[in-house]
Amino acid sequence: MNRSWLIRVLAWDGCLPLAISLSPWAIGAVLGPDVALLCAVCVPMGAAFFRASIGRKQLADVCQGPPGILRQLLFAAAIIWLMLFEGLASVLHCELVQPRAGEGEVAWLVAAGFYMIYLTLMALALIPPPARTAEVEAPGQIDA
Asked: Is residue 96 within 8 Å of 41, Cβ to Cβ?
């Protein structure tokens, strides 16, 4: 089985959300905390909607036509978990909620759990269907 789909999922759905979740820190370091707060709110939402629009095309490509309802549900659930992950990561980055001592690590573990659920659902939605083998007629066989 060709595993190039898994590499695409890990590259697109594995790396990009992590980069987006780190963007408030990077922008905050350069442009200040006010811009980081704006970035923490707008960038993850925009990225999730962008991911959803790109994903529709990917689903159609994987299915070689309109995707089935199960794939669409898996994909929609993955996008919801992506938004939960990026929302929680943004809140934690901008310290909008101050966790008590020792709870910050737990909050990041929850965010990591959201991310793993997202990645699993997206991989399941984008796994190629099994190859269909065409029936080959034996030489000399005549169709009736």
From this structure: no
Structure tokens at 62: 């994987």
pTM equals 0.75
- In contact, 124 and 77? CB cutoff 8 Å: no
Q: What is the mean pLDDT of each run of 10 residues along the chain (144 residues)?
A: 73 79 80 81 81 82 86 92 86 67 78 93 87 55 55
The count of other CB atoms within 10 Å of the CB of residue 129 is 11
Strands (E), 21-134: none
Rounded CA-CA distance 54/9 in Å is: 12
For residue 27 the two structure tokens come to 């922008």
Residues 6+ apart with CB under 8 A from 115: 17, 18, 81, 85
In 3D, which of 93, 77, 6 has the Cα closest to residue 41? 93
